[in-house]
Structures are given as C-alpha cells and as structure tokens.
Amino acid sequence: MSYISDNLFPTYFSKNVYRMNFRKVWEAGYRGIIFDIDNTLVGHDAPVDDHAKRLIEILHGMGFETVIVSNNEEPRVKSFSDAIGCKYIYKALKPRAYGYNKALEVLHMPKKQVLCIGDQIYTDIWGANRAGLDSVLVRKLHEYEPPHIHLKRVLEMPVMWMYVQKRKKMK
User: Fold this and answer.
1) What per-residue string of b and e applies to 69-78 under the rule 16 or more CB within 10 Å gives b?
2) Structural domain boundaries, residue 69
3) Do 105 and 72 contact (CB within 8 A), yes or no?
4) Residues 6+ apart with CB under 8 A from 4
5) What is the pLDDT of residues 30-81, one digit of tens each?
6) How far apart are CA 53 and CA 76, in angstroms?
7) Position 5 pLDDT exceeds 90
8) How many domains does the structure of the chain reveal?
9) Under DSSP, is residue 30 helix (H, G, I), strand (E, B) or coil?
10) Is residue 109 assigned to a domain?
11) What is the pLDDT of residues 126-168, one digit of tens each?
C-alpha cells in the first residue's frame, strides 16, 4: 500500500525545459502550454533572460499558445509575461485547480490539448493533475531557493522515489 497518491506524479519528466522536444509535444496533439516561472523558465525571482524569450518565440512560431500560471503577485508575473509575450494568471493558488482553469479559459482549448510545465511537485504538478491536465516535471534550473521552497524539495524526495519505482515497473 502506498501512502503517496498518483495525483502527485507528473505525466512526463524532463531534465530541463530548454531541452524538451517541442516538435514531439506538438505531434502528440498539444497546442497550449502552461508554464511556471521560478526555477522552470528562470532562476527564483530572476528577471527574464534570453533563453526564456527565445523559447517562447520558438513555441509561438510553431503555433503554440502559452500562459504563465504563477502564485506570485501581479507585478512579478505581468512584467515577466509582458517581456516574453505570454498571457498570464497571477496569484494562481496552486496547487488548487483555480489558476489552471483560468488558463484554460484564456487559451480557449480543451484540457487534452494543454500541457503544464513546472519544477515543483506540490504546486505545479499536483495543481495540474487536480485540474485534469497533463504535466511535465522539470528539474529546477538553479540551486538557490528560499527556505520554504527548499523544505518542499525535501518533502518531494519520497514522491520522486515512488514515481521512479512506478516507471520501472511499467517498463
């Protein structure tokens, strides 16, 4: 018996958002992508960088619609989103489904066409799963994180262990 819910497991895993094969994502039928900001696209509280700008430019060029869904306050999320040309939802209340459902309204797409990408199990992945969306867990981009997020990382370790064990059994 497992005390860890499958609702905490991502649909997919990628080491880095910048190394994902978005052509395969498109071929799989996804047309909308929901991104987290901190330690998914840039380091925690970091400004927009050229990597984030270029990624979103490429995705838009492929035909993807993108939305930032963040628990941050509007000034952080709006300035970041404006700089990369994304729509956004701030104070998303992750892991509740609220922010993801708002993003679906913005995207005007069915759930099966939307993929969520984030670096934290207990916010990004759990929230996406609660909203009925496919999710990709990416490794954090940078080591620095505030203490409360570092604590969540410790709590994520048994979930990741169970996820890896489940994937091994499926092979």
Assistant:
1) bbbbeeebbe
2) 6-170
3) no
4) 158, 159, 162
5) 999 999 999 999 998 899 999 999 999 999 999 999 999 999 999 999 999 9
6) 16
7) no
8) 1
9) coil
10) yes
11) 999 999 999 999 988 776 666 667 667 667 776 677 767 766 6
Measuring CA to CA, which residue among 137, 155, 161 is closest to residue 39? 137
What CA–CA distance (Å, rounded) separates 103 from 128? 11
Place of tokens 């867990």: 137
Residue 1 CA, distance from chain mean position: 29
Backbone angles phi, psi at 81, to 5 degrees: -65, -45
- Within-domain flag for 1: no
pLDDT tens digits for 110-129?
999 999 999 999 999 999 99
Residues 14 and 92: their CA atoms lie apart, in Å, by 23
pLDDT at 1: 38
- In this prediction, residue 153 carries a pLDDT of 65
What one-character-per-residue DSSP string does 120-165 give? -IIIIIHHHHHTT-EEEEE--S-S---HHHHHHHHHHHHHHHHHHH
Written as six digits, the tokens of 164 are: 């890896």
Rounded Cα distance, 128 and 125, in Å:
5
CATH of the domain at 105: 3.40.50.1000
154 class by beta-carbon count within 10 Å (0-12 exposed, 13-18 middle, 19+ buried): exposed
